[in-house]
Amino acid sequence: MKSLLRLFIVLGMVFVLLVILNYESVYSHKGIEAKKGKMDLTNWDFGRDGIIRLDGEWEVYEGRLLTPKDFKGIGNLKPLPTGYVKLTLSPIHNEEGFNLSPKGVRTYRLNITLKNTKDILGLKVENIKMSNRVFINSKLEGQSGNPAFKDKGYKPNTAPYSTYFAIDGNKLQIILQVANFDYPFQGYLYKLHLGLQEHISLVTTTKISLEMAVTICAFFFSIYYLSIYSMSKKDKSYLYWGINIITIMIALFVSGQMILVELLPRIPFYAFIKLKQLAYMLRILSLIGIVNQINKNIIRKNELKAVKIIGISYITVVLITSYSISVYIDSVIYIPMICFLIILTTRLATDIFKNKKEALDRKESTLFVHCMISIIINAINNQLYSFNLVYSRLIGSSALGFFMIYMAYILSNRYFLAYRNMESMADRLMQMDIIKDEFITKTSYELKAPLYGIVKISETIIRENRELLDNSDFNKIIMLRSMALRLSGIVNNTLDVTLLRNNQLKLSISFVDIMVCANIVVEGFKYITQKKDIEITNNIRESVMVKGDKNKIGQVLFNLINNAVENMDKGKIEINIKKQGSRVSISVEDTGFGISLEKIEKVFRPYEYEGSEERSFGLYISRQLVELMEGELYLDWTEVNVGSRFIFSLPYTDKKSNLESKISEIDNYNIKPLTGILEKENIAGERNTILIVEDEMENIMVALSILRNEDYNVLIASSKDDAMRKVAENNIDLVILDLIIPGASGIDICKEMRKVYTLIEMPILISTLKNTNYDLNLALRAGANDFITKPFEEKEMIARVKTLINLKKSMEEAVKNELAFLQAQIKPHFLYNSLTAIISFCYTDGERAAKLLTHFSKYLRFTFDMDNKAMYTILRKELEAVDAYVEIKKARLGEKIKIEYDIQPDMMDEKIPSLYIQPLVENAINHGLYEKEDGGTVSVSVRRIEGRVFIQVKDDGVGMTKEKLKELNSMDYNNSGVGLSNIRKRARRLNEADMIIHSIEGKGTTITIIFRYL
């Protein structure tokens, strides 16, 4: 590991050096300079000598932006230079000794004499602040920003660029326009290089490639560190490392070749400058944070506080001020901050050598010191380059490359530390695993004795006291034995896994009758599968002897059948046998969920899952047991949603054992289960009906034993469809709903039930194994009334059930009493109106009065036959009351009143809320037609559409004003009468009911009542 790390570092350093050498190989180091604005390159071979830097004296024209046209004049018409300057000196000065202002506009010109060449040349322009434009032989070849006077379109941009051109002859005139109104410091280390196109391209490509390579490395390093920090926020050094490397990536993008500036040309250049300033500061601050995380004693508290204040102040100034102001802060801030980094690096190095640490911690600290030194060199070089004090950033870029190499070494070192810790933890876990196995073995042995006692005692009671037990007690004993057997199987599996892993499992090999084993196991599943619609068929009809351990063969059969039961809601399980030479193959085939192709290889691995259902480690144990008995267990075939077939084979033997003894053993288990224990028929009377929606047999039996003592009528459902069907077919007073059942969650079922039944109509009690606020919130939001945890405790369950049922009864009684009171108000109102009409005819038309009395007697019969608390009546009877009332009204008003019926034929004998239609007809006649001179027609319509009943009473009378209609439709409308107000109140009491009034003054009124079909 260590040798590989050293090799990696060496190769990385060699790569950096090769890049530097390749980069420098195209540059010439011959000292040819311009004199008085002229440069003689007639003896220069660009192919042999490489790229030349355009050093020396350039003509300078201060305060003017001149173009090639300006230099085409003759004699005095040509502009005269202000002087001559060397663009590669810092600060710039001409030979006469006058200094140029950093800000302003100016033009530089250089005339070069070349030897004749047909090669395409290139010019690379870098580090010219803050904008420039280049003309070559009267042609504009490139620019960065827009050099102009400040009020005439000046735009800053210092992005480097390369331009390529061919020349005709041996003369080359370069005119450089420069404008700067932002950067305040003197010193213009302009970088202008002339060479062949391929050389210039190589330089540009090399720089961009190097910057991109470092940027990509920085990106992945930052992702690595920030990901670690997001997973564990305890060590903030990972956060600081991530921020530091991100700042390196940003700085590379907005400096050097300024890749980001080229990619996003529409963003103002000042934004990139500010981004670079922030990146440099955050890099320094993050390094200080890393040092503080490595050793809290390196940085004093007052120093750390001062750094925070300086950093925040600087960032604030950069964000809120212009670059021309914040650039002054750079010169004040960066030098002290870099000095502080140097001090911290010295302290850290001193601490490493003074204090004794583990070798690996010491190594990482040493590597970090190297990282600090590299960053400091890079920062110093960048600042010197930024202030035009050095000509190249090569040293800084090389230091950054070494920083990335050291970073990779640190990551490798941390990986090695983590690997070593994992090895140590693995050793400890192995020791803990041994202790765990010993604990499980001892615990399993301790549990086997009491479980064995429970099974045997229950079997004794079944055999010896069958006649003394009633059906309920007898089935409780059966369930007790089933639970004990199931728990015993779990204990056995757990113990066997432990013994198998330690090669300590011992088998008792004998001659075993497969038929007997299969019958015993299948018999045990009769009570387990009562909760599901599963049929288990044992097709082994005759004795077949195999060689193996009787208990382990039974355990294998149990595990295979149990695996099938756990992975199906309904269907068939068949056990078959086939003799093949000296082997006997036993198959367990089911019509369950099947196994997907990608999961087939996993079914025999311990603790594997299939979909959302857990396949216990029974299959794994079974295969191990069969192989120990010189057999084989495998998955023969499977198909999703069709089923599976597992086959295990064992050695066949023709030796016979005591068959009669085995049959006797079977007979002890052959107890016919009680039919109907899980569900009683719904009985008419006052008994309340409770629906239990549960898929665990043990929970069902416990709930039954509690509720049966309270004389409740109990129904059982084990699926969503079964539950919804029984709710629709029975008058359920309470639902005890498991939070999770096969095929659906209790929450979904509860919501489905609440679409039809209110909290009062059918209370729902959610049951779950967990008692968490999350589950409680889900249940209550879904519409549950209450919440109970499993296993059920008798007193708690009785209290909750009684509370909810009594609440339902009390609310129903209150509603019925109020409705009866409202209905009772209608009867005297109608009696008074009817008697008044009959009395008026007794004096004038006796025969008519007799007919009216006949109609009145029909109404009275309808009234007296109906209980005051009866909320519903037959539609036919309600219409008879309407006819009686209309006939009485006709006696007074004549044929001015007409009534029409539009009744759906199959609705005549259906139940509707009592006294809804008659009061509406009465209201239509008295308030709609009575005031109309020529009378009118009342239309009554009753329809059933998509499970809802629509009752509509329409008249073509006088209608009502908009103000009156608004008053009637108001939810707060009430009066002392018994008309529409009474009907609206009663309609609101119905589930999912509504009353709609529509009226147009002068045209009539329509009243519609809508409610769910009863």
TrEMBL record:
The chain crosses the membrane at residues 208-226, 238-258, 278-294, 306-325, 331-353, 390-412. The modification 4-aspartylphosphate is found at residue 738. GO terms for cellular component: membrane. Keywords: Kinase, Membrane, Phosphoprotein, Transferase, Transmembrane, Transmembrane helix, Two-component regulatory system. One of its GO terms (molecular function) is phosphorelay sensor kinase activity. The keyword Transferase applies. Its EC number is 2.7.13.3. Residues 442-654, 810-1014 form the Histidine kinase domain. It catalyses: ATP + protein L-histidine = ADP + protein N-phospho-L-histidine. Residues 689-805 form the Response regulatory domain. May play the central regulatory role in sporulation. It may be an element of the effector pathway responsible for the activation of sporulation genes in response to nutritional stress. Spo0A may act in concert with spo0H (a sigma factor) to control the expression of some genes that are critical to the sporulation process. This is Stage 0 sporulation protein A homolog.
